[in-house]
Write a structure and sequence with these properties.
The chain has about 375 residues and is α/β, with parallel strands linked by helices. The chain has two domains: about 120 residues, Aspartate Aminotransferase, domain 1; about 250 residues, Type I PLP-dependent aspartate aminotransferase-like (Major domain) (Aspartate Aminotransferase, domain 2). About 35% of the residues lie in helices and about 15% in strands. The protein is built from eleven helices and 13 strands.
């Protein structure tokens, strides 16, 4: 089955390119173009009044879509921002900490750069006290974090590790220790949102969840999202005017907050990503494409690719996660990974490399023919 017709603009823009980095920059479907145009048209047609449509119609529709994908039943617990780093800063400021001490952060060495770099800098400046655990073995990671939870104010862990493609099981052990007065548990779901069916569910009662549109939501940059468990951080210190709420019980002059996830809001933002996201969600619904169905499509391609690479030089690499795993990419560890990535790039085959790991990512816009092209190129590597 091929769904390339849904991506005619992106594929047609570079017809010779073989883009197998859907896990990195997922190509945009045609529906996103329609969303971008509608955003522009609304701005021209409505001018100042566009915000009534954005916040009154599109925002709650997008919240409902995210809550449905997460299976939390809590659309009011969803808030959007330009990127997830913005939320990391707000969470750092809002998380409870012991009086007179820096925030105690517990995380892993497998987190994405927006968290890794920021935590390292805060540790360098003394703004946090940082403890970092190795992510491997993944099967014991949640338990190891839970054992150290008593020494932390904020715990951050990826649900699916971007470097290895491995899922972290047992996150309910962390959820059970999360509390409004600490520790807070933040699940980075950037590689599980719209890639793993029902990635949050009951975990959302006590865990934050971060994700965005850049990967498998297919809607590009400019849309970070956060699920905020009720009762956690009612008055975030970093706050914009969109979070304002007139609580008549407050003393005069005190800063008010919305009671739902809007309490973590910032200020004026570019709404175009919301338009793109909603147009894509409507497209998927119209095509009958759930996350489970897309994953099944990608899983078949991953298994075809893994089988095809047998006997090629890429077969000498360590496959970090089986093709049947939930990741939308194959992660191949080898000292020559950067060399292979460069050689493939020279032939207009786009993969990516993270250290000594070559990642080949597949998505809805790929079919068997694309996999066979990757295999043919792999056979030219020495």
């Amino acid at each position: 089955m091929s769904y390339k017709h849904l991506f005619s603009r992106s594929l047609g823009a570079a017809p010779g390119r073989l883009h197998v980095a859907a896990h990195s920059h997922h190509l945009w479907p045609d529906a996103s173009f329609a969303g971008q145009v509608e955003c522009w048209d609304d701005a021209a047609r409505l001018a100042d009044r566009k915000w009534e449509r954005v916040m009154g119609e599109l925002w709650p529709e997008a919240q409902a879509e995210v809550a449905a994908e997460l299976r939390t039943g809590q659309p009011g617990s969803i808030v959007f921002a330009g990127n997830t780093h913005d939320f990391i800063v707000r969470l750092w400021a809002a998380a409870p900490r012991r009086a007179g001490t820096p925030l105690r952060v517990l995380t892993t060495s497998g987190e994405f750069h927006s968290a890794r770099r920021q935590f390292a800098r805060w540790a360098e400046s003394g703004d946090i006290r940082l403890e970092v655990l190795p992510p491997e073995p993944h099967d014991t990671l949640a338990g190891r974090l839970a054992e150290r939870a008593g020494e932390a104010d904020l715990i951050m862990v990826s649900q699916l590790m971007f470097g290895t493609g491995r899922m972290v099981p047992g996150l309910d052990a962390l959820a059970s220790v999360a509390a409004p007065d600490g520790p807070w548990v933040v699940i980075d779901g950037y590689h599980s949102f719209m890639a793993v069916p029902e990635p949050l569910g009951a975990l959302g009662r006590s865990c934050f969840f971060l994700a965005g549109g850049y990967k498998y939501a297919m809607s590009g940059e400019g849309i970070g999202l956060m699920h905020c468990p009720p009762g956690f951080g009612p008055r975030p210190p970093i706050t914009g005017w969109y979070a304002e709420f007139e609580d008549l019980t407050l003393p005069p002059g005190q800063v008010g907050y919305a009671p739902d996830a809007m309490r973590f809001m910032g200020a004026t933002f570019d709404p175009s990503a919301l338009y793109r996201f909603l147009h894509i969600r409507r497209m998927l619904a119209g095509e009958g494409l759930s996350t489970a169905r897309i994953s099944a499509h990608v899983d078949a391609l991953k298994q075809r690719l893994a089988a095809g690479l047998a006997g090629t030089v890429l077969d000498t690499a360590e496959l970090l996660d089986p093709p049947s795993g939930p990741a939308r990419f194959l992660a191949l560890r080898h000292a020559r990974a950067p060399e292979w990535q460069a050689a493939l790039l020279a032939q207009d085959c786009i993969t990516d490399v993270r250290g000594d790991v070559l990642r080949i990512g597949l998505g809805l816009y790929h079919d068997d023919e694309d996999v066979d092209r990757v295999v043919a190129l792999a056979k030219t590597l020495d």
